[in-house]
Amino acid sequence: MTRPFIPPHPPRPPRPVAGWRGFFGERARSSVYGWSERAFETDHIKRRILGFTVHVLLDPDHVQQVLLEEAANYAKPDIVHELLHPIIGHGLLTSDGELWREQRRIVAASFAPGAVETQRDRFIEAANRAMDGWNDGQLVDMAAEATRTTMTVIALALFGGDPRLISDTSMAHIAAAIEGFSEARMLALLRLPQFPLTARGRAGQRGQIFLRRTLSEVVDDRWHGRVADDFLTGVVTALRERFPDEQARALAIDNAATFYLAGHETTANALTWTLFLLAEQPELQEQLAEEATAALDGGGRATIDGLSLLRRALMESMRLYPPVPRFDRQAIEPARLGEWDVKPGDIVSIWPWLIHRHRKLWDEPDTFRIDRFEAKAGRHRFQYLPFGGGPRTCVGAQFATIEALTLLAHWLRRWKFVSLGRPVEPGGMVTLRPKGGLILKLEQRR
Ligand code: HEM
Predict the structure, then answer these.
(1) What are 412-421's pLDDT values in tens digits?
(2) What is the pLDDT of residues 144-181, one digit of tens each?
(3) Which amino acids does the record list as binding heme (predicted)?
(4) How far is Cα of residue 78 from the mean position of the Cα atoms in its chain?
(5) 395 alpha carbon – ligand 1 mean position (Å)
(6) Domain of 130: which CATH number?
(7) Which domain holds residue 315?
(8) Is there a domain that residue 354 lies in?
(9) Which amino acids bring their CB within 6 angstroms of ligand 1?
């Protein structure tokens, strides 16, 4: 049994900080800063922020009500549409009602367990491509490396390996687009037009434009039959059967952007945090390397059954550092959550970051303990939700899990990831990533 390990989290003031201070001060640093101790022990937080009423749900029963039982009454918030529209339009992640249902039906089969299984060779290819560039004793930013690798996976698995989607230019523009979100969010909340004021905001907008232009070209290649069969070709064909041409083309670009972005950045963060946690716990890393070696001997295709320790480590990593630390809904009709009245237009905010570390739900909530995932019994269905829940649960959950396990198993079998002892701080406004990257030393296993 390895020693208990409490990985870093932002400081927690004993009492809630004033709304404006949390919002413009601590909270502006990263989405997970500025929460007081109270947020990790209470059942519900209601706040007024810049004219919005926000309910932060911390009781898994209420989360279940919103995401599952009364899902039809809770849509994606207007502000999310406004923020994400320039980049992912009305694709699967940002649509509601019949348009959402139709798009979910179109893509669902490509993400069913059997279909994910057929992608396993692409995951292995991407793992090998990354390792080809590593040298013994080298210091590597594993956050960047994980991003490049998951980008390669998505390009290979969904877009026929299109090189335009794996370039360093694409990576830089995506990073800029994500960085630009915090300013865009602030402008949207203050109800100001989206004219970025800072260099970071302007770089973000250039990143969005680059992405839309590149993905329009990628879609047009499929539209005009210049590319053989791949996931995107299937989406283009299905959309053309159901919608007028102009709308079908716009939705095809929206979904290309949705799957390209949602499909790699989150998984990259899950991989990065897992590598950080394993670099800090070398004994556990050794155990996982042995498990991976045993599972992969015999041809390189590990089954999930053979990677049960690694699976638990990944789950615990996504509990402590959920790649999507928060997601929101907006009430359509009046509703009630326990003793709380929800009015039409209220924002209902679900924070895996808080729920995953809540004192009423977890023993030693800040401690890394993979044994907590040995059995499912005793856990509420909605207390562990890295992939969301209900009908809008992440369509790529199975894909991401098998992908992450495959990449990690192949990497751990050949390489040791060594901590340099540098402090790591959670950063990021939309997804949760180590601020400034994650530099680790790579040592080749003999
Ligand atoms: C560890 C990796 C991932 C995490 C933690 C993650 C997390 C999430 C979460 C929390 C949601 C729900 C958001 C909400 O309810 O508002 C979501 C939705 C979604 N995810 Fe993921 N995701 C991951 C990987 C992927 C991958 C690999 C893909 C595609 C290849 C993907 C595509 C999507 C899409 C399209 C949606 C919207 C689904 C819908 O609304 O019907 N995700 N994801």
Answers:
(1) 999 999 999 9
(2) 999 999 999 999 999 999 988 888 888 888 777 777 76
(3) 394
(4) 21
(5) 6
(6) 1.10.630.10
(7) 76-324+386-444
(8) no
(9) 92-93, 104, 258-259, 262-263, 266-267, 270, 323-324, 327, 386-388, 392, 394-396, 399-400
